[in-house]
Automatic annotation (TrEMBL):
Keywords annotated in UniProt: c-di-GMP, Cell membrane, Hydrolase, Membrane, Transmembrane, Transmembrane helix
Species classification: Bacteria, Pseudomonadati, Pseudomonadota, Gammaproteobacteria, Enterobacterales
Main localization (coarse): membrane
Domain EAL: 23-276
Full-protein interval shown: 243 to 520 of 520
Catalytic activity: 3',3'-c-di-GMP + H2O = 5'-phosphoguanylyl(3'->5')guanosine + H(+)
Designated name of the protein: cyclic-guanylate-specific phosphodiesterase
Length: 278
């Protein structure tokens, strides 16, 4: 019958979609994606909390797959790591950012911070230092302040991390601890590494305003960062109430949909304005 035909058509569509998605999860697809320019970068503004001025952006990668559509980075980054493809993928990211740099210079002042996420598989690869050097050399000289974002879990993974972080500092880069509060914190490492920023995971930020009392862990994280002389960045700020509370706690930087979603380069250069709500 017609109905059955439609039904099987629908089912077929769903199935093909599923199969394509599964197929897209072969390592080769990532390499093809790189070749065919399926990856691009979005930039999310970060504002300092006193005057709510944009001080920089975080680069967030996107994969626009021709059949599967937008594949979220949470899915393809860990997949690339599992397929031993995180190094070529991150090198590609570096090239994309370098290509965007002239446009970025038009909206970001000299000294603006450019946040770049580094996956653990790349951090601990043999070519890491060389890749970073090449990336830096591909950017306009002395313009951006590169902040490498590394998740909490990578700090505890490797003893060699200490040497790598020292090297990054010597080369003039800054380091942020990403998703802080979600990993198994080894606070001793935090003290030893002397990193620059602590990014408060959005899970904590979400809870502001929804609970009668804010999280004691959030309070402790903010206090800890201050004691360690680290600047704080609150992630996932979505409401005026959250922004207000975080500003009152003197969290240094704010990032989230309330200020701006991640933007395509063209949207960013069209001009971003921030308004202060009460
Ligand atoms: P992340 O580093 O914690 O990045 C912040 C994520 O939160 C981004 O998701 C961003 O779009 C999202 N976000 C920002 N503001 C808000 C908000 O107000 N509310 C909510 N609900 N979400 C918000 P995205 O772009 O999907 O990236 C997810 C994760 O994938 C990133 O988490 C990062 O760990 C990883 N990732 C993204 N791009 C790259 C990359 O180029 N390299 C590496 N190694 N990892 C990347
Ligand atoms: Ca990040
Ligand atoms: Ca994060
Ligand atoms: Ca995250």
């Amino acid at each position: 019958s017609v109905l059955l035909g439609i039904l099987s058509g629908l089912l077929g569509g769903v199935l093909t979609g599923y199969l394509l998605y599964t197929r897209s999860r072969s390592g080769k697809e990532i390499l093809i994606g790189i070749k065919r320019h399926q990856f691009f970068v979005m930039y999310q503004p970060v504002v300092e909390s006193r005057e709510l001025r944009m001080t920089g952006v975080e680069a967030l990668m996107r994969w626009e797959h021709p059949e599967a559509g937008m594949i979220p980075p949470d899915a393809f980054i860990s997949f690339a790591e599992a397929q031993q493809l995180i190094v070529p993928l991150t090198r590609h990211l570096f090239k994309l950012i370098a290509a965007d740099a002239p446009q970025l210079q038009k909206v970001l002042p000299r000294g603006a911070k450019l946040g770049v996420n580094i996956a653990p598989g790349h951090l601990h690869s043999a070519t890491f230092k060389e890749d970073i050097r090449q990336f830096a050399a591909s950017l306009p000289p002395d313009y951006f302040h590169i902040v490498f974002e590394i998740t909490e879990r990578d700090m505890i993974q490797e003893k060699e991390a200490l040497g790598l972080f020292q090297w990054l500092h010597d080369e003039g880069f800054e380091i942020a601890v990403d998703d802080f509060g979600t990993g198994h914190s080894a606070l001793i490492y935090l003290e030893r590494f002397k990193l620059d920023y602590l990014k408060i995971d959005r899970g904590f930020v979400n809870a502001i305003g929804t609970e009668t009392v804010t999280s004691p862990v959030l309070d402790a994280v903010i206090t800890l960062a201050k004691r360690l002389n680290m600047d704080t960045v609150a992630e996932g700020v979505e409401t005026a109430e959250q922004a207000k509370w975080l500003r009152e706690q003197h969290v240094t930087y704010l990032q989230g949909y309330y200020f701006s979603r991640p933007l395509r380069l063209a949207q960013l250069t069209e001009g971003v304005t921030f308004s202060e709500d009460d």
